[in-house]
Amino acid sequence: MRKYEIMFIVKTTMEASEALGLANTYKKLITDDSGEVTNFKEMGQRKLAYPIKKQLNGFYYLINFNATTDTIKELDRKLKLDENIIRHMIIKLDEE
Predict the structure, then answer these.
(1) Where are the domains of the chain?
(2) Phi/psi at 30 (nearest 5 deg)?
(3) What is the 3-state secondary structure (H, E, C) of 2-62?
(4) How far apart are CA 85 and CA 59, in angstroms?
(5) Please, are residues 38 and 1 in contact by the beta-carbon 8 Å criterion?
(6) Which pLDDT score, from 0 to 100, does residue 94 have?
(7) Of 3, 29, 42, 65, whose CB count within 10 A is highest?
(8) pLDDT digits (tens, 9 = 90+) for 4-56
């Protein structure tokens, strides 16, 4: 398994508790597919640098985890299909 970091932005049309529930859903997806979440950070609601999909604000979440490439592919696919996710980025971290 390799180390990864994902950051995603959730629309503010959702309540804060619903957005956190959505983030927990993605954490569960990682752990259910034999991954390991090493760090989870809720960064709160922030103003976007520019409007994205007519949104001016978003709830930011950061997850550090260990997973296989198959898990990454499935996670990326589900994030792309989710209408409540404005943007996401998955980064493979360097091995130390």
Answers:
(1) 2-92
(2) -65, -50
(3) EEEEEEEEEECCCCHHHHHHHHHHHHHHHHHCCCEEEEEEEEEEEEEEEEECCEEEEEEEE
(4) 9
(5) no
(6) 84
(7) 65
(8) 999 999 999 999 999 999 999 999 999 998 889 999 999 999 999 999 989 99
Of 25, 41, 33, residue with least CA distance to 81: 25
Question: What's the pTM value of the predicted model, to 2 decimals?
Answer: 0.90
**Cβ 33 vs Cβ 69: under 8 Å:** no
Instruction: Output the six-digit token pair for 21.
Output: 């529930």
Rounded CA separation 57/81 (Å): 20
Per CATH, the number for 2-92 is 3.30.70.60
- Could you tell me which residues are beta bridge partners of residue 91? 5
